[in-house]
């Protein structure tokens, strides 16, 4: 996917905290906005005058949160992301919640997927500790362009999540509902990735994009 996006723009990739070779532990969307900010700052140091953030699934929530809190990216692309935290309306998300809440769950996630979770940042019983919902962050992205992409066969987050993000955001914004598309990067076709790359180039030429 990064190779394909490089056909239209330079690409900086990162593993969020607790994933891959990155240190630390995943907060499942809370503190990861700082990781995105570090990547944006690095891209600026490399000489990129304009930077768009592109995130899939958890990454979608992170770039939306970054766009609303830090506001240093010139455009944001959110693919297959949630509109609210602690969603348990689908079987995969209920499974994730059980895995994180189970005492041995974080160990299992680490062994099976290499994902290290910080359970101190995961307490559905205490709403006062929750970070702002992605919809609240999406509302603060404008006037920077926002693209929301979602599939009508997403098993994790139904279409209403994408519709809520789009409704909360200000212009300029776009919503792409992809027929037959499942969830995140694993289901993304080369054609979809190419279209996202073209959207980024257009968005970064738009007024207000930096």
Provide a descriptive summary of the structure in words.
- The structure is a single chain.
- The chain has 210 residues and is α/β, with parallel strands linked by helices.
- It contains nine helices and four strands.
- A four-stranded parallel beta sheet has the order 1-2-3-4, sandwiched between helices.
- Helix 7 links the parallel strand 3 and strand 4.
- The longest helix is centred in the C-terminal third of the chain and has 16 residues.
- The mean pLDDT is 90.
Keywords:
single chain, 210 residues, alpha/beta, four-stranded parallel beta sheet, 9 helices, 40% helix, globular
- What number is the mean pLDDT? 90
The spatial strand order of the largest sheet comes to 1-2-3-4
Instruction: Count the DSSP helices.
Output: 9
Q: Sheet bearing the most strands, described? A: 4 strands, parallel
- The portion of residues assigned to helices is 40-55%
Terminus-to-terminus distance? 25 Å
Percentage of residues in strands: 5-15%
* CA-based gyration radius: 16 Å
Poorly predicted runs: none
Based on secondary structure, the structural category is alpha/beta
Apparent shape: globular
SSE string: HHEHEHHHEHEHH
Report the strand count. 4
């Amino acid at each position: 996917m990064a190779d394909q996006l490089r056909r239209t723009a330079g690409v900086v990739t990162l593993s969020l905290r607790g994933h891959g070779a990155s240190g630390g532990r995943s907060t499942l969307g809370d503190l990861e906005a700082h990781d995105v900010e570090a990547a944006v700052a690095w891209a600026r140091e490399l000489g990129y005058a304009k930077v768009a953030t592109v995130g899939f699934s958890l990454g979608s929530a992170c770039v939306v949160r970054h766009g609303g809190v830090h506001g240093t990216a010139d455009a944001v692309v959110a693919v297959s992301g949630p509109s609210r935290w602690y969603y348990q309306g689908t079987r995969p998300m209920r499974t994730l919640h059980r895995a994180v809440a189970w005492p041995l769950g974080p160990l299992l996630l680490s062994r099976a997927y290499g994902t290290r979770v910080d359970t101190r940042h995961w307490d559905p019983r205490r709403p006062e500790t929750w970070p702002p919902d992605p919809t609240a962050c999406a509302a603060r992205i404008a006037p920077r362009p926002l693209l929301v992409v979602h599939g009508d066969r997403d098993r994790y987050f139904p279409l209403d999540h994408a519709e809520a993000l789009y409704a909360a955001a200000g212009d300029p914004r776009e919503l792409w509902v992809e027929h037959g598309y499942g969830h995140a990067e694993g289901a993304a076709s080369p054609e979809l990735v190419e279209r996202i790359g073209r959207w980024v180039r257009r968005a970064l030429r738009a007024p207000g994009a930096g």
